[in-house]
Design goal:
Layout (H helix, E strand, L loop, with lengths): L10 H9 L8 E2 L17 E13 L4 E12 L3 E7 L3 E7 L2 E8 L3 E5 L9 E10 L12 E4 L2 E4 L20 E10 L3 E3 L3 E8 L2 E12 L6 E4 L1 E7 L5 E7 L6 H8 L2 H12 L7 E5 L7 E2 L5 E3 L10 H9 L8 E2 L6 H17 L5 H11 L22 H18 L1 H14 L4 E2 L1 H12 L4 H9 L25 H5 L8
Parallel strand pairs: 1-4, 2-11, 17-18, 18-20, 21-22
Antiparallel strand pairs: 2-3, 3-8, 4-7, 5-6, 5-8, 6-7, 9-10, 10-15, 11-14, 12-15, 13-14, 16-17, 19-20
Helix pairs in contact: 3-4, 3-8, 4-5, 5-7, 6-7, 7-8, 7-10, 8-9
Length: 495
């Protein structure tokens, strides 16, 4: 389910303006949203984060979380105050060592006013001390903090950070992370990147995780509970860390049979997308009642329900493909979601071909033929689907169909050069659908505006598909063997 944000009133912003001393008249509050039209109050204006250092303590019996977040950032305007996206109870905020005043605004904004205004281009260190019970917090009628029988999980899209750390919560402001979590002995804490060290003292064990590559806030995850952790190294040299709740029950075998193939699949995807962009890979399967999976960077979140019908390597392929398309290269704005979901779905089509269960062309033909011209499927524009259809089936299936159309238009040599070159072109950064079109035109040497418009932006079924000429509505096409598995992941991000 997608969340539409109701704009908070202007009174808070007006009161902040009145509070600025005359000597700081040129300084102004940072915007309470980063400017994304899909989610106007997600993220914040006025600064750019470089690093988050999170030092936490968690008690699974009571769901109590205590933390100190140290945020290293740089101002992008003359700031009198700035916002952080956050829900828990704050006891102290310091900016560059000095105590700052703070208040809350709207449903998820922490407004910080430093002791002295901050000039544009200033390096700032923000320390936030906080505590609370995340499962008691909600905003806009929902929560992304998922309790489990032995702990909790933070994993959701397009937001998850508010419930456990203050942040600039938009994928356009990526940062590196140190996440240090103390939990009672016997409980484990899992996060992104690599485990740097563990230490035990007085009944508590601290886990220190590090993500040394830029990472979006919604891709930052935390899993707290009792896990069976496996480690390995892929043939390509990628360290793999997987974890499974010890109470998965009947889903345990299928989950392991799927997720333990992570190293193999990472190496296989590297042949298409280029070298794996991060220092580790893996996934975790907590005992949650949620139904989705999420490409949390280097440590994919899988719901046990993904494996209710047996092993499911297709969903593993989908989430691992995101490590290149979505995590390494992230969206500039949420309207660019096709770059994430279309290519992750197309990776499933490539895997189907690899497994001998239907070629990419057969899957494209089937998708095209399965939806008559008057199907609402064609009214969704994958290149800008709107927040209500951001994770709709058309973004995945029509999105992958557009990729096959591109492949047929430019030929395999240029197509596979683009697949591999794109993650390198925008490595660890952000890009838009328009950026991708320009890149594809540059590599292929062909004008592609008409093709992109037809497949990504027109709310109708293309009359002359770049598939096999299937222009007649209802043309019968045999269903590929892999389709049932692929279709089962249509709601993989449907929360």
């Amino acid at each position: 389910m997608h969340r539409r944000i109701i704009a908070p009133g202007a009174l808070a912003a007006a009161s902040l303006l009145l509070a600025i001393p005359a000597s700081a008249a040129s300084y102004s509050p940072g915007a309470p949203g980063i400017g994304d039209p899909y989610y106007p109050y997600y993220g914040n204006g006025g600064y750019d984060v470089a690093h988050y250092d999170l030092r936490l303590q968690y008690q699974p019996k009571t769901d109590e979380l205590q933390g100190t977040a140290t945020i290293l950032a740089k101002t992008t305007q003359d700031l009198s105050s700035f916002d952080l996206d956050f829900l828990l109870d704050v006891s102290e905020v310091r900016v560059n060592g000095a105590k700052a005043s703070f208040t809350t605004s709207g449903q998820h904004e922490l407004v910080v006013t430093p002791k002295t205004p901050l000039a544009k281009g200033t390096a700032i260190t923000v320390v936030v001390r906080y505590s609370g019970v995340p499962s008691t917090k909600s905003a806009y009628g929902f929560s992304t903090w998922h309790r489990t029988p032995d702990g909790a999980v933070a994993a959701d899209e397009p937001e998850a950070a508010w419930w456990w750390f203050p942040s600039n919560d938009h994928p356009s402001d990526k940062a590196t992370y140190d996440v240090s979590v103390a939990v009672p002995d016997g409980t484990q804490a899992i996060s992104n990147g690599t485990l740097q060290s563990t230490s035990s003292k007085l009944g508590w064990t601290r886990y220190n995780w590090r993500q040394n590559k830029p990472q979006a806030t919604y891709l930052t995850t935390l899993a707290l509970g009792r896990f069976d952790i496996t480690t390995s190294t892929s043939d390509g040299g990628v360290p793999v860390v997987n974890a499974y709740s010890k109470d998965l029950g009947d889903n345990d075998g299928a989950a392991r049979a799927s997720v333990e193939r992570t190293g193999e699949i990472v190496d296989w995807l590297s042949d298409y997308f280029g070298p794996y962009p991060f220092g580790s890979a893996g996934g975790y399967v907590p005992n949650t009642t949620t139904g989705y999976a999420l490409e949390t960077q280097t440590r994919v979140y899988y719901s046990p329900r993904q494996f209710a019908n047996g092993s499911n390597t297709s969903v593993v392929v989908h989430e691992l493909a995101h490590q290149w398309y979505g995590d390494d290269v992230s969206v500039k704005g949420w309207k660019d979601i096709w770059i994430n979901e279309g290519f992750a779905r197309y990776a499933q089509w490539l895997w189907s071909e690899h497994e001998g269960e239907g070629t990419t062309q057969e899957l494209a033909d089937y998708v095209y033929a399965s939806h008559p011209a008057d199907d609402a499927f064609w009214t969704v524009k994958p290149g800008d689907p709107g927040p209500d259809e951001q994770f709709g089936a058309a973004v995945y299936d029509r999105g992958a169909l557009a990729i096959q159309a591109l492949r047929n238009e430019i030929g395999d040599d240029a197509f596979f050069a683009i697949l591999k070159g794109w993650p390198k072109e925008y490595a660890y950064g952000n890009a838009s659908v328009a950026d991708f079109q320009k890149y594809a035109e540059r590599v292929s040497g062909k004008p592609l505006a008409a093709l992109f418009d037809t497949w990504l932006f027109q709310p109708e079924k293309p009359a002359s598909p770049a598939v096999r000429g299937l222009a007649k509505t209802g043309t019968a096409v045999e269903r590929p063997k892999s389709w049932k598995k692929i279709e089962a992941t249509n709601a993989v991000h449907g929360h």
